[in-house]
Amino acid sequence: MSTAGAPSPELRVEAHGHAPALRLVSHPAAQRYREDIDGLRAVAVLAVIAFHANPRLVPGGFAGVDVFFVISGYLLTGLILGALEEGRFSFADFYCRRIKRIFPAYIVVSLVTLALSSWLLIPNDYIFYTTSLAASWAFVSNIFFSMLSWGYFGQRTEEFPLLHTWSLSVEEQFYFLFPLLLIALFRYARKAMPSVLAVAGIALAALSQWKTGEIKSYFLLTSRAHELLVGSLTFFVLRRYPARPGALSAAMAAAGLALVVGSFMLIHKDLPFPGVNSLFPCIGAALLIAGCRSDNMVSAILRSRPMVSVGLMSYSLYLWHWPIFAILKYRQVEITLPVGVAAVAGAFVLSWLTWKFIEKPTRQNARLGFRPAILRLYMLPAALFMTVGLFSYVTEGAPQRFSGEMRALISSYSFERDLTRSCSVRAEDYKVVTLDYLMANCAFGADVPGKARVMLMGDSHAHHFKPFVDQLAKDAGLKAVYHVQGGCFPTELQVTDRHPERGPDTCQQRNADLLKLVGNFDYVVLAGFWASEPERELEKELRYVVDAIVAAGATPVIFKDNPFHEPDLSRCILYRKRGWMEAGADCHIPYREAAEAQAEYDAIVERMQAAHPRTIIIDPKKVMCDGKECLTWTDNTALYKDSNHLNTRAAQMLGDWYAARVGNPFSARPNR
């Protein structure tokens, strides 16, 4: 799901009747236009499209990005080095070519996705889209998307129209840095150039492997630069060893094709990536570039007219195909075989039109020099799209696009966030927590003098229950504090490998610090997405924490979890009211499914109470469910923000309901 790398903006010798766009006289390896490289582009972009249409077809199709990066590194090195050796390298010429190649098509895609997003996206999603649009024009969309907590393969990412621009930003960042490196090496260490690049590639590959456990590493140049350097080193090798027809070239081409296709079929989203696994498609691409210099069966396939035709418009194909799939999925259209075929066909039509009438004419316009190109094709569009992003942010997603009733429903999806990350932290934000720190930064509940008597700790589910606890604490006249970390159960005190993306020990250290403080409170509230934890480990760890709370003289309060739902029903009522689903569509969760999914975890919580009768259990299902179903919305108010997290308004409302219908567990002072 989600995108996998952009075809490299074209860096090649143009032939076929027009004046060459580039001559590399001193480099036979790069002198002529190579149809097989366009054929290789076709292989890569078709794999990416197939993966996005149906990941089961080509589980590793996202590795097409790695093939594109190798091609970029190979061609970019030849272009710059050839110009340097001929004494004609110019940054203005270099970036003029990049501007004329990259931005004309992307201007059109940006305008079309902006128009569709302005019509379809609700305010929070619209803010996200317009911010990603601005980030893409600032060449930092990879950094923007790296900040997503759910990562590249998360469920929501498949609805982001511009997610695929992360790879364009990687290449654009490389275009800024790599020419400077090559120029420096050319002037001061010309003979050592391949060796320096090889050492840099090895070091960066090692860094990429080391960082594969971090969600953000997928998007960053530091995790991808070694792939571009594989292409660069391929250029140096081929320059030294001219093509020789025969069995060796054929074997290299066949081995390269096997590695590339094998990577597309055998790599999958659950494997560490990029890191070492990215070297398989990269080395395969390098072998194809080397082996297809000579005539053989593989080069004949790549040079065939259909493959070359697809390769020539691969950049436009990449730009168009992902927004089509993303908008269909956002619109709740199931990608069946007919829909998928129609989507791919539409991408091909739009891509051909873009290539024929926008890409080619602009690229071949010799009168469009650097200054007019950067003004018309980059600065003015970038200013426009960044202004749109600012407007969207200032107006909170331009809600005036919707009716009053729809705005009220949409506003209920909002979620209160700790923007300072003082009390709702990420692994990298963690600092030692003290009682004074909690009182100064993380207080909520009743505004009364004296110490806090309630502490809430846990993961993102503890965070979404904070407004619930806030209502109960205010009703009971109690001050409370909280400290939560996404993905970090309040029970984790042993170092585990269950969440490698969090970084070393921050979760366990946070819980250990908080557990030292429990004796300062009357109530210690524990909440978590229990169903995502192995049952045996959860029971053992929860028992240890509850024992520690009781031993410190506090009363444990454990939330049973709210119902969760797959597929995600959180926006069902919104889509139904927008006419995207049948009017009679059932947007609630069948009670039997909810109860069965949580039965064992609820039983674990009940066993904690059996061991320590003072333990209080809060079960939100008591106010969310009857014997038939569990609510996902009520009275034009959504209860969820996604498949398992409550939104802020819902948590407040459920807290009030619980106090009124079940009773406030904080209303009686516990015996200490």
TrEMBL record:
Segments passing through the bilayer: 62-83, 103-122, 134-153, 250-267, 273-292, 304-323, 335-355, 375-394
Matching InterPro entries: Acyl_transf_3_dom (IPR002656), Acyltransferase_3 (IPR050879), SGNH (IPR043968)
Highest taxon of the lineage: Bacteria
Residue span(s) of domain Acyltransferase: 36-355
GO biological process: lipopolysaccharide biosynthetic process
GO molecular function, one term: acyltransferase activity, transferring groups other than amino-acyl groups
Record has Transmembrane as a keyword: yes
Keywords, sorted A to Z: Membrane, Transmembrane, Transmembrane helix
Cellular component per GO, a single term: membrane
Sequence ranges assigned to domain SGNH in this UniProt record: 438-656
Descriptive protein name: Acyltransferase
Taxonomic source organism: Noviherbaspirillum denitrificans
